[in-house]
Amino acid sequence: MNNFSRLDGFYGSMLAAESIKDGMTVLHGPEGCRAYASNVSTRYVKRPLETREGDFFFHRSRIPCSCIDGDDYIYGSPEKVSMILDILRRNSTVFATVLESPGASLIGDRLADEVAAAGMDGHVAVLGKCFMSETFGYGYDRTLELIARKLVKKKEKVPGTVNLTGLTYVSKGCFPLLKEIRLLLGKMGLKVTADIGPGCTVQELKDSASAACNACLIPEYFAETGKFYEEELGVPLARGPLGAPVGYDALRAWLESVGEAADADPSPALEIVDEEESDVDLIVDSAFTMGEISRYKSYTIAAESSVAYPLAHWLSKKMKLAPCAIATAEHDPESEKGIRDMLAKMGAEGAYGRDVRAEYTDVFIGPGLMGALMEEKGECRTAIDAFPPSRDYLDIMPRSLLGLNGCRMIADRVYNTR
Fold first, then answer.
1. Where are the domains of the chain?
2. Which residues pair with 104 in a beta bridge?
3. Residue 397: which residues within 8 A CB-CB, separation 6 or more?
4. Which class in CATH covers the domain with range 161-271?
5. So what's the architecture of 9-151 in CATH?
6. pLDDT digits (tens, 9 = 90+) for 58-95
7. Which partner for 222 in 140, 166, 275, 402 could form a disulfide, CB atoms 3.0-4.6 Å apart?
8. Burial of residue 333 (number of CB atoms within 10 Å: 0-12, 13-18, 19+)
9. H helices of 91-163, where?
């Protein structure tokens, strides 16, 4: 159902490995393969900013690279990884994840043997495969699973604690969203043990096994990792029945699901959501004619399945918009079924999987660069940036589609589309 550009699973792997704040990601491959991920990690992961010189870093702060050349593709070069590990050991690196570029993965270097020979098997995880042909979410999820299997052991559960999962630090407005979700969960008497995916330390990840549940925002980024926690660590997964908490109905459903899994009362948080929705409704209703003509437009969505479903539900049911096209980038069976069933009731089955640029749409929600192109070419009136690739700007204002700020941002952009 994907007919638009998005980062692949190889970059998902690198960025997931970089979510361990006090860890390090080692890339066995050429220099060019690590440039984008190194820049993104440096920019978004909340850790002290520094620049490193010397072999394998070359003025980059993150992702030391073996920089393999033509001879290495022929003769192999696992010893370069050993040299990087030696540097990390001298710098007392707590944990490292070793990945291979698409080309390097074909060489067959025995990297796990090099790690064992260096005496760092307990502190290093080797992925052993490249996810270039998989989705971004799949690569992110499977790499988190690998790291969790290496580090996390079963623990006694601490009541009133949860892990925040199913979000990446490149998700739009990630950190303001986490702050908002923490406040809502706090109203329910819950504390967050670890942010698995957006960024946590090795110790926080180890402690995550003691949480009462994993509060999952976007299930596609935590599918296999969530199964590992549930089946082997005894930490259940709480996800919203409408998918990600996009729109007021889905946010309420998500809070209720977390409350049930963590044995907490969601009522105080739900009151805040109700008050927020009432405020927005009053703004729109008080505008009289302007508020009414702001409805009855068309929309196109290109997003994760679990984001597209509640978003389409909200736009259609609450704002009275009609779907032109809905394309999904990641695979979540429950959400995909929800989209199909919803469109069938509307008599708009053909919208699912349609080319997102096949016809003009009033509102486009999807990759930032695609939205910018569609606006420039007159293919949409309003474009809302949902995820990378995006325009290169500093994310200072909250821009997530999820949560209360996401509700206000989407409502503001949609209702002001003229």
1. 9-151, 161-271, 279-415
2. none
3. 173
4. alpha beta
5. 3-Layer(aba) Sandwich (3.40)
6. 777 788 888 888 888 887 888 888 888 888 877 778 99
7. 166
8. exposed
9. 111-117, 136-151
